[in-house]
């Protein structure tokens, strides 16, 4: 298995390094270059970044879009440009009631934060390329799902708050639509957690 021949050189003896047969040496080179390249952690880092960046984009859009009409509600259930101060004085009941879309939009960023922490915890030097691809897929799953959910919450919240201010009976319908928009991000979170579990099961290269 190993070449343990003793060589004589100037009255000194030494044992040469072990000799690996060509098939084993070839397999080791393939493992080091194709299956576990040095750039494999890059895909995991990009998955970690995509998870938090895209979900924050969705949360920011949903918060700004659905929070805009909250600052425009004041007196007699009409849309005006008075601002939050006048609204808090004239209709304080509308502030807390119509802040729900903003809260639901902010929750989306938490989904991305959870996945980013889990993916970053699994990053290591010398990891398999397969694990890096899985981590990238996990980050994109929750990131793009959160982006879509944030857009949906922002549009529904904008129209729903304006409509419920004029017709309070529409408030329950707005909440139901917001729930179905929020669950889109939850689907991405579930898939990302499942993918990240597969990535942790992959053996490292060293």
UniProtKB/TrEMBL annotation:
According to its UniProt entry, the function of this protein is described as: Proton-conducting pore forming subunit of the V0 complex of vacuolar(H+)-ATPase (V-ATPase), a multisubunit enzyme composed of a peripheral complex (V1) that hydrolyzes ATP and a membrane integral complex (V0) that translocates protons. V-ATPase is responsible for acidifying and maintaining the pH of intracellular compartments.
Q: Which Pfam families match?
A: ATP-synt_C
| The species this protein was found in | Neolecta irregularis (strain DAH-3)
Query: Could you read off the lineage of the organism from its UniProt record?
Result: Eukaryota, Fungi, Dikarya, Ascomycota, Taphrinomycotina
Transmembrane stretches, by residue range?
20-36, 43-64, 70-90, 102-120, 132-157, 169-195
Domain V-ATPase proteolipid subunit C-like, by residue range, is 46-118, 136-195
Q: Which GO terms describe its biological process?
A: endocytosis; intracellular copper ion homeostasis; intracellular iron ion homeostasis; protein targeting to vacuole; vacuolar acidification; vacuole organization
- The keyword Hydrolase is annotated on this UniProt entry: no
Fill in the subunit field for this protein: V-ATPase is a heteromultimeric enzyme composed of a peripheral catalytic V1 complex (components A to H) attached to an integral membrane V0 proton pore complex (components: a, c, c', c'', d, e, f and VOA1). The decameric c-ring forms the proton-conducting pore, and is composed of eight proteolipid subunits c, one subunit c' and one subunit c''.
Q: What is this protein called?
A: V-type proton ATPase proteolipid subunit
Q: Which CDD domains match?
A: ATP-synt_Vo_c_ATP6C_rpt1 (cd18175), ATP-synt_Vo_c_ATP6C_rpt2 (cd18176)
**Which GO molecular function, any one, fits this protein according to its record?**
proton-transporting ATPase activity, rotational mechanism
Q: Does the keyword Nucleotide-binding apply?
A: no
Question: Where does this one sit in the cell?
Answer: Vacuole membrane
Please report the record's description of how this protein sits within the membrane. Answer: Multi-pass membrane protein
Keywords (alphabetical) are: Hydrogen ion transport, Ion transport, Membrane, Transmembrane, Transmembrane helix, Transport, Vacuole
Q: Which NCBIfam families match?
A: V_ATP_synt_C (TIGR01100)
Q: Indicate the principal place this protein occupies in or around the cell.
A: membrane
Annotated Gene Ontology cellular components are: vacuolar proton-transporting V-type ATPase, V0 domain
């Amino acid at each position: 298995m190993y070449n343990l021949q003793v060589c004589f050189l100037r009255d000194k003896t030494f044992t040469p390094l072990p000799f690996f047969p060509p098939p084993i040496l070839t397999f080791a080179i393939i493992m080091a270059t194709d299956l576990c390249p040095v750039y494999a952690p890059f895909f995991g880092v990009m998955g970690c970044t995509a998870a938090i960046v895209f979900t924050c984009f969705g949360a920011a859009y949903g918060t700004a879009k659905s929070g805009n009409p909250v600052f425009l509600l004041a007196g007699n259930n009409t849309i005006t440009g008075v601002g939050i101060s006048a609204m808090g004085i004239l209709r304080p009941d509308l502030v807390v009631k119509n802040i729900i879309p903003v809260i639901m939009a902010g929750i989306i960023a938490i989904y991305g934060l959870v996945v980013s922490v889990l993916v970053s915890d699994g990053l290591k030097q010398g990891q398999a390329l397969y694990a890096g691809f899985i981590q990238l897929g996990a980050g994109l799953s929750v990131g793009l799902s959160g982006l879509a959910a944030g857009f949906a919450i922002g549009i529904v919240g904008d129209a729903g708050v304006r409509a419920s201010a004029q017709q309070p009976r529409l408030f329950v319908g707005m909440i139901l639509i917001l729930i179905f928009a929020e669950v889109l991000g939850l689907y991405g979170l579930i898939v990302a957690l499942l993918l990240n579990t597969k990535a942790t099961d992959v053996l490292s290269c060293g």
